[in-house]
């Protein structure tokens, strides 16, 4: 009897790397492993990660997943998904010179002002498809130039996490188009690095990388993942940005408007694929929605995305700083939370921009009350994203499909269905970035000829949730109060 052929999917999240062995025939998860890595906070507005720690964590997770898979499996292909908006300066040998600067690090406010002054926020948005904020890796590179000139001078390149991993595997500084676009110095319509942004930041094209390929590209074969023996020569698909991969796994079509995909994690991200560039990035307005339009895994198409930057991160913040228990079981806490209780307590979860607030507390307010209000506020932010993204599409979305770690809770999905007053679905396999990267591997290795065929082969069923009318009316009334409170607060702070 032959061995069970599996994809080895490696998904780099903002705080964990998830490695999953996925059966090539059934798309079922065979075995998996997670490894955490640290966030460093050298100053109040600074967050850093360590590229080498991420690599080591991925080695350990790959080793654990293969060990758990047992001797009866064989790795047919390795494939990847990556969180975007990050940069690591490296020397000529690809070694990190400084910590990784992620998009959610807010240190580059002055550099954003410089880019705004020299290029203009509207023009920047038209070039990159992105609102001009500290998410921009270009602004982080300019920060290094000004504040760590010795690092900037030594930097031969500025790698994304994708490039760092590809270099570790022996493939140089290669990157796919989605991750190049997420450096936010890329002209997404012209499909090249933006000369005006390069000039302002003092960068050269060579430092950002000229070897840009399609997301399904098989970049080569490896026998080892670092120190881990894979048991044979394995083809490596470069993969893409985690949101684009998630949309594929959520059943979002590349040829028509039909389904919205939702990835619930550190960010709550909502999106679809478009044949045209969507102008008019949201400027954070009254609800601090982050929206963008950037290159999809498929040439000539775009990923249109809305996101709320501190969704899952807010739950971790609550456990660490209010509950004083960073290891608390968030799933158990959600299960116990009373989300239907009448309450005048609201959380404005805008922590990334120093606008976070808890409003409506009394001497009787408990931590449980705050946690429930926080969960409701994240659902309200989701609805704000839905309201915005619907206005960017020519067609009508018939389905909304959820995945990601935050979607495990029936209660959170039901709350969103109630607020929408519409049926919503949760994918059977919620590890959307990993499953989406397998779809790309199927295409890249020639096991399927079209995106639709690959989605069919790497199938993912849907469990649907119906709205509760009474709960929905009460929650929608609360949402209207939240919107007014949020708008008034943001105008004055």
From TrEMBL:
Highest rank taxon of the organism: Bacteria
Keywords (A to Z) from UniProt: Kinase, Transferase
Keyword rRNA processing set for record: no
Coiled coil feature spans: none
Carbohydrate kinase FGGY C-terminal domain span: 300-442
One matching Pfam family: FGGY_N
SUPFAM superfamilies linked to this entry: Actin-like ATPase domain (SSF53067)
InterPro entries for the chain: ATPase_NBD (IPR043129), Carb_kinase_FGGY (IPR000577), FGGY_C (IPR018485), FGGY_Carb_Kinase (IPR050406), FGGY_N (IPR018484)
Record has Transferase as a keyword: yes
Occurrences of domain Carbohydrate kinase FGGY N-terminal (ranges): 7-248
Sequence similarity: Belongs to the FGGY kinase family.
PANTHER family, per the entry: SUGAR KINASE
Protein's UniProt name: Carbohydrate kinase
Provenance organism: Christensenella tenuis
């Amino acid at each position: 009897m032959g061995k069970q052929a599996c994809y080895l999917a490696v998904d780099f999240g903002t705080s964990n790397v998830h490695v999953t062995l996925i059966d090539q025939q059934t798309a079922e998860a065979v075995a998996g492993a997670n490894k955490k890595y640290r966030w460093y906070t050298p100053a109040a507005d600074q967050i850093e990660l360590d590229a080498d720690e991420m690599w080591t964590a991925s080695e350990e997770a790959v080793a654990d997943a293969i060990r758990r898979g047992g001797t009866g499996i064989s790795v047919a292909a390795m494939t990847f998904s990556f969180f975007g908006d990050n940069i690591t300066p490296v020397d000529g040998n690809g070694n990190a010179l400084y910590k990784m600067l992620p998009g959610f690090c807010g240190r580059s406010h002055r550099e954003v002002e410089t880019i705004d002054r020299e290029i203009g926020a509207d023009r920047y948005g038209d070039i990159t498809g992105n609102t001009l904020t500290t998410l921009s890796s270009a602004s982080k590179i300019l920060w290094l130039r000004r504040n760590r000139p010795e690092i900037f001078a030594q930097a031969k390149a500025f790698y994304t996490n994708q490039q760092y991993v590809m270099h570790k595997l022996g493939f140089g500084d290669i990157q796919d188009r989605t991750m190049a676009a997420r450096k936010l110095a890329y002209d997404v319509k012209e499909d090249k690095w933006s000369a005006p942004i390069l000039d302002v930041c003092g960068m050269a094209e060579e430092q950002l990388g000229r070897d840009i390929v399609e997301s399904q590209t098989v970049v080569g074969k490896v026998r080892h993942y670092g120190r881990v023996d894979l048991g044979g020569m394995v083809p490596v698909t470069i993969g893409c940005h985690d949101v684009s991969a998630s949309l594929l796994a959520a059943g979002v079509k590349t040829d028509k408007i039909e389904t919205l995909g939702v990835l619930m994690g550190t960010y709550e991200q909502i999106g679809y694929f478009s044949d045209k560039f969507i102008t008019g990035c949201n400027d954070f307005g009254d609800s601090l929605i982050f929206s963008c339009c950037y290159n999809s895994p498929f040439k000539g198409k775009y990923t249109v995305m809305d996101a709320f930057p501190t969704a899952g991160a807010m739950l971790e913040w609550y456990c660490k700083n209010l509950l004083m228990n960073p290891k608390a079981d968030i799933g158990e806490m959600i299960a116990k939370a009373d989300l239907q209780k009448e309450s005048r307590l609201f959380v404005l979860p805008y922590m990334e921009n120093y606008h976070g607030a808890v409003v409506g507390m009394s001497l009787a307010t408990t931590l449980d009350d705050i946690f429930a209000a926080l969960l409701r506020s994240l659902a309200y932010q989701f609805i704000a994203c839905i309201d915005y993204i619907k206005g960017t599409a020519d067609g009508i979305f018939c389905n909304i499909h959820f995945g990601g770690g935050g979607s495990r809770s029936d209660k959170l999905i039901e709350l969103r269905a109630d607020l929408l007053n519409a049926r919503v679905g949760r994918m059977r396999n919620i590890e959307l970035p990993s499953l989406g990267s397998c779809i790309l591997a199927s295409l890249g290795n020639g096991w399927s000829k079209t995106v639709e065929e690959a989605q069919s082969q790497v199938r993912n069923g849907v469990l649907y949730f119906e709205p509760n009318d009474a709960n929905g009316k009460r929650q929608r009334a609360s949402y209207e109060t939240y919107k007014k409170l949020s708008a008034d607060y943001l105008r004055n702070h």
